[in-house]
Amino acid sequence: CVGTGDCFSQGFHGNGGGRTQAKLRGCIRALRAVTSLGEASVNQNLCEQRAFHQLLGVLIQLQAGCDEKDVVVVEMMSDVQWILSELCESDARAKEQFGSGGVEMVVNFLKRGSEKFYSGLGHNRLLLSTVDCVWSCVVGSDATEDYFLAKQGASLLLDLLRTSPPCVHGAVLSTLLDLCDNPNTRSQILSWRDADGQTAPRILLELWREEEEEELGVLRDQHGGIIDPKKPILTRLQQDVSGGSSFPADSPSAAVLEVSENLRAKIYLIFCCLGFQELPGLSAEDFVTLSIVRRYLDFKVGEVWDELSRELVLDGTKLTSNDEEALRSICETSEDTARRVMEEQSDILEQQQSVELHEEMMAYVEMKSHWKQQELTAQSWQNYVSRTSDYNVLQEVKVQRKEQVESSRPTPEDGGAAGPPAEVLHPHV
């Protein structure tokens, strides 16, 4: 890896003074096997030997002469990124060594997007290794994060989130979430727009709805609102296992497992960093979904207590009166919260309906005024044509105008009020 020269012939005896692509590929695979062991001393030794600069140099060289249809080159680039991720994941000093050169590298790869994800040439693996490289090598170092954000890194991650397939969304959201610890991330996320002008909060809420409706089977109405206040965020899987046997004491329940297996918890935490007020570019449907997102943690706590209550019943555990009253109060509080959210959603939809009705009335008034103006214009034109094409009509109009002029003149009974004032003569003294 340290040597320089041609490395683009796959044969072992290819050109380049022995430094062939096959040898480089073997070196990269060996380094990946070594770093994947997780031995801190080995990884530290690699860092002391300036492995970062050498690996980044190899990666830049491969990227510069890369044929996007060359499976071997794409594989080597993704392997180098995995090695860098292993070296930086738990080492703050290594993240600093990654530096601006590493940030430039991941930014260039992020700009490629996900168009070739399903090409079958390894670009799916390269994309995932790039996102992992951002999470392992950039996130966690203030200086590296600031440089990454200065290069519009958060915007590139949002572009990737918008265009990538669903299997990539979890990794991108996790990286964005950790990047939100940097105070400069929020403004960049809120100012981002996609090609259609949609904002980041709206994209996140769309992902939430798609996740609930297509993947999790949560009960929602046509506007995305809560249907059953007893099950405000309950998934299809949780409903299937809710009536079964109790869970072992050493394994998490369905409500807890659900948090790590879908995107909702990540989206909720990102909104906690962005805030729930004054978010740009949201529709009424988005505000309905946002009301659920805001209460996600409350609903999840209620689910856990509900599961605990069922577990106690299945195990035949008899509660004291105080414990039973406390458990019932907690479950009722969760249900009351869901009902309040349902009322809030109804208010949002009613307000939106009022706005749409007002806009419809204004449009109707404008249309009516437009048609009235057209009628007046047509009538004026018709009168003009009648006056200029029919002599009799023209004579009638002439007589009418003459009568109007005569009627506007002062009559003799007015005492000559309209005449000039008489001159007053003064005798000479």
Automatic annotation (TrEMBL):
Residue numbers spanned by region Disordered: 400-429
Protein name, per record: Chromosome 7 open reading frame 63
Record-level GO cellular component terms: non-motile cilium; sperm midpiece
Pfam families reported in the protein's UniProt record: CFA69_ARM_rpt
Lineage, broadest ranks: Eukaryota, Metazoa, Chordata, Craniata, Vertebrata
Organism: Nothobranchius korthausae
InterPro entries the record matches: ARM-like (IPR011989), ARM-type_fold (IPR016024), CFA69 (IPR048732), CFA69_ARM_dom (IPR048733)
Domain Cilia- and flagella-associated protein 69 ARM repeats: start-end pairs: 1-307
Entry's Gene Ontology BP terms: olfactory behavior; positive regulation of flagellated sperm motility; response to odorant
